[in-house]
Structures are given as structure tokens and as C-alpha cells.
């Protein structure tokens, strides 16, 4: 063969491998092929209660006596929570240097299927730290609209809701920046660079539109370990369990019975594992019927909960020890399964039986005693195969989705 052929072949081969290199660096966000049906009434309920959850988180973060009492048993045995509490106490001791408070959070729910076929909204947790995907969930509605149009489902495509949490979260940041009073102030994002998840960039883009500078700093596992603000302790599972006790919500909403009713309606059964008769009863209940419950440690971010026979293994080891107070027990929520295709890089395309989780984003800004901003700013739907008990998008288990209201 001629040298010209070899030169051409080498050129084509080089170009081919260059294409492969580029292809490996560019991928898509994990998502469902089709949107998932969600009852409209339950969806609107989740949106309506979010501003009350914003207020609740803020008020808890200011009540050091409540946090000290609620977390007393937990900080004795859980080093992670204890360290956070010591930071909290140190901040209070030194005095808060700023009167401006920004809160960005996400309340997560599943739809518990009743015997009559209807669904009720039940909260899984409220994330005051791991409240991500506000950026990417702002982009997915257009994707599903396009898919439905291609599939000939034009009418359904028109029912995909607009959703832009990135703009709402940026609005909260911008408001706090404005109140800070210095045009030289810069927003710093602590990020974990994941090639599939550049969520923060959409929020940054919204800030750039407002002429607010931001910079990015990379920290491995930053959302799990390096973030801290005064609301972090308010999102612990122990606080979640204490809030479900009779009369506790009324402490934070003394003249707002409707707010109490709306929040309490979202609570699943939550049970203490503190030492004493009540905690002993919880242990016995969990050991007798472990499949009814979820054992939850004091963490955000997904992938930490304990299910089924593992509940028995853990509780048998700690049932007579104060170590059990590092957990709470919650009723297991049973959403109706749906069928969908989960699109993920390097994963086979197949129909899966799926479960979905609805998140609602909230943003608030307080200056002194005045709540300057308190809004529900968007939603997030994540879907995973029913074969997985726990784990989110960042963990490689769930994918992004959109609600199709019915």
C-alpha cells in the first residue's frame, strides 16, 4: 500500500480517537425518558407549605435552648452532630457579627399510597445543606417537552410546568448581597466538580445577570463536610423527630394554627430512640416489624439510611446502649411504583419499576427581626429504580425527572 494511504489512515485514526476523547468529556445529566405523573393536589400542597418550613427552620436556628434540649442525647454519641453543635455554641458565644441571614433549603417528600388508591404527602427530610439541583432542574422541563412532542404526545407536553429554582435561589443570594451593602462583595461557591452535575453554574449565571460577582472553589465532598451555617442543626433527623411531638410546632407558631396544621399534615410517624420506656418501645416495635420502618442517622445527602433486616442488625447491637440515640425511627413511606426508562451514562436502556421523590426549594432572607424575603422558588423530582432503597442523583442511584400533573 502507498505511503499516502498510511498517512490518510493515520489521520483518520487520530481524528477518531480525538472524537472519542471529546465524547468522554461531554455527557448528559442522568434523567428519565418521560416525565412522571404526580397528583396536582398533592403537588400544590407541597408548594403551599414551603414558606412555613422556611420560617420554621429560621426560628429553630435562633432558639439555642430548644436545640440544646432536642439534641442533648444525640450529641453525646454522634461526633458529627456534636462538632456542629460546638461550632454553633462558639458562634453564639462570640456574637453574630452580621444581622443578615440567608436560608436556601429543600424539603423532600414521597407520596404515600393509601388503601383507597389516593396519595398523601409525607416529608422525608428537610435539607438545609444538601439542597442541590436547583440549577439542573431548571433545564429539564424543556427536555421532557421535546421528548413528548417527538413521541406524539403534544397535549401532555403542554402540561410540563415551567420551573426555575436557579433564578429563585439566586434572587435570595442577590437580596442578601444587596443588604450586605458593598458592591465589592463576592459570592463564593464551594463545589464538588462532577462531570455529570454542574448544578451551581446555573445559579452563578443568574447572579451574573444581576451583575453580582462570584468565584468558585473546589472542595472534595464539600457538601457533606465543609458547609455550615446556623440552620444546619435545624435539619437534623433528631430535630425532625422532636418537632412531631404534640405541642412542639405550636411553640414556633403560637398564633398560626393554619401553619401548624399544614406542616403537621406532612409528618410521617417519627419515633425516639432515647433511653427510657418510650425508646425501649420503639426498639421493640422496629425489631418486630423492621420492614415497616426506616432507621435514620443524623446526615443529609442520601445513602445513609438503614432498611429491613439491617435495622435488626444495628438495633440488636446498640439496643441497650446510648449509641442508639444517634438514630431516629420513621415509618417507611410507600409510594406507588411507576414504569419509566432511566437514562444514565454507561447504563443499559431498559424499562424499570421506579419510585419518585418530590423536593421543593425555599429561599428566605432575614435582617434582624424582619423577614425581608420568604418564598417557594421551585421544585425537583427525582426518580430511581425500586430495587434501590436509598441514594440520590449524586450517588449514582436516582435521576432527574419532571412532574406531569394529573
Quick overview:
It contains 15 helices and 15 strands. It is an alpha+beta fold and 406 residues long.
Word description of this protein:
Strands 1, 3, 4, 11, 12, 13 and 14 form a seven-stranded antiparallel β-sheet that branches. A four-stranded antiparallel β-sheet has the order 7-10-8-9, with helices on both faces. Strands 2-15 form a two-stranded parallel sheet. The chain starts with a helix and ends with a strand. The protein has two domains: about 5-270 and about 350-405, no CATH class; about 270-330, Dna Ligase, domain 1 (2-Layer Sandwich), CATH 3.30.1490. Helix 8 crosses helix 9 (about 200-210). The protein has 15 helices and 15 strands. It is globular, with a radius of gyration of 23 Å. About 40% of the residues lie in helices and about 25% in strands. A hairpin with a 7-residue loop joins strand 11 (about 340-345) and strand 12. The protein is of the alpha+beta class and about 400 residues long. Homodimer. Its EC number is 6.3.2.3. One of its GO terms (molecular function) is glutathione binding. Its cofactor is Mg(2+). Keywords: ATP-binding, Glutathione biosynthesis, Ligase, Magnesium, Metal-binding, Nucleotide-binding.
Features:
2 domains; alpha+beta; Glutathione_synthase_a-hlx; Dna Ligase, domain 1; four-stranded antiparallel β-sheet; 406 residues; Glutathione synthetase; seven-stranded antiparallel β-sheet
Amino acid at each position: 500500500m502507498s505511503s499516502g494511504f498510511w498517512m490518510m489512515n493515520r489521520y483518520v485514526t487520530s481524528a477518531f480517537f480525538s472524537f472519542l476523547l471529546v465524547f468522554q468529556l461531554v455527557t448528559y445529566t442522568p434523567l428519565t425518558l418521560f416525565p412522571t405523573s404526580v397528583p396536582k393536589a398533592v403537588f400544590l400542597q407541597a408548594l403551599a407549605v414551603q414558606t412555613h418550613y422556611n420560617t420554621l427552620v429560621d426560628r429553630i436556628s435562633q432558639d439555642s435552648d430548644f436545640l440544646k434540649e432536642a439534641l442533648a442525647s444525640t450529641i453525646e454519641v454522634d461526633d458529627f452532630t456534636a462538632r456542629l453543635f460546638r461550632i454553633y455554641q462558639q458562634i453564639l458565644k462570640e456574637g453574630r457579627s452580621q444581622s443578615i441571614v440567608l436560608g436556601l433549603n429543600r424539603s423532600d417528600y414521597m407520596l404515600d399510597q393509601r388503601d383507597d388508591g389516593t396519595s398523601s404527602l409525607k416529608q422525608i427530610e428537610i435539607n438545609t445543606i444538601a439542597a442541590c439541583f436547583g440549577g439542573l432542574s431548571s433545564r429539564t422541563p424543556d427536555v421532557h417537552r421535546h421528548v413528548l412532542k417527538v413521541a406524539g404526545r403534544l397535549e401532555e407536553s403542554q402540561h410540563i410546568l415551567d420551573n426555575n429554582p436557579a433564578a429563585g435561589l439566586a434572587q435570595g443570594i442577590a437580596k442578601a448581597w444587596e443588604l450586605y451593602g458593598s458592591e465589592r462583595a463576592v459570592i463564593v461557591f464551594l463545589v464538588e466538580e462532577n462531570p455529570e452535575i454542574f448544578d451551581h453554574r446555573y445559579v452563578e449565571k443568574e447572579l451574573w445577570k444581576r451583575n453580582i460577582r462570584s468565584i468558585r472553589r473546589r472542595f472534595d465532598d464539600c457538601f457533606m463536610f465543609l458547609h455550615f451555617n446556623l440552620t444546619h442543626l435545624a435539619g437534623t433527623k433528631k430535630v425532625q423527630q422532636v418537632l412531631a411531638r404534640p405541642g412542639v410546632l405550636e411553640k414556633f407558631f403560637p398564633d398560626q394554627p393554619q401553619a401548624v396544621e399544614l406542616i403537621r399534615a406532612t409528618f410521617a410517624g417519627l419515633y425516639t430512640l432515647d433511653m427510657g420506656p418510650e425508646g425501649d418501645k420503639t426498639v421493640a416495635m422496629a425489631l418486630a416489624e423492621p420492614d415497616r420502618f426506616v432507621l435514620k442517622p443524623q446526615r443529609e445527602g442520601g445513602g445513609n439510611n438503614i432498611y429491613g433486616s439491617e435495622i435488626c442488625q444495628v438495633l440488636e447491637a446498640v439496643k441497650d446502649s446510648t449509641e442508639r440515640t444517634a438514630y431516629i425511627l420513621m415509618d417507611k413511606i410507600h409510594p406507588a411504583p411507576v414504569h419509566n426508562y432511566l437514562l444514565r451514562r454507561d447504563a443499559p436502556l431498559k424499562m424499570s419499576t421506579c419510585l419518585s421523590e418530590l423536593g421543593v426549594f425555599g429561599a428566605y432572607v432575614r435582617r434582624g427581626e424582619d423577614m425581608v424575603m420568604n418564598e417557594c422558588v421551585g421544585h425537583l423530582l427525582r426518580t430511581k429504580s425500586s430495587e434501590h432503597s436509598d441514594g440520590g442523583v449524586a450517588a449514582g442511584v436516582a435521576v432527574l425527572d419532571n412532574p406531569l400533573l394529573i
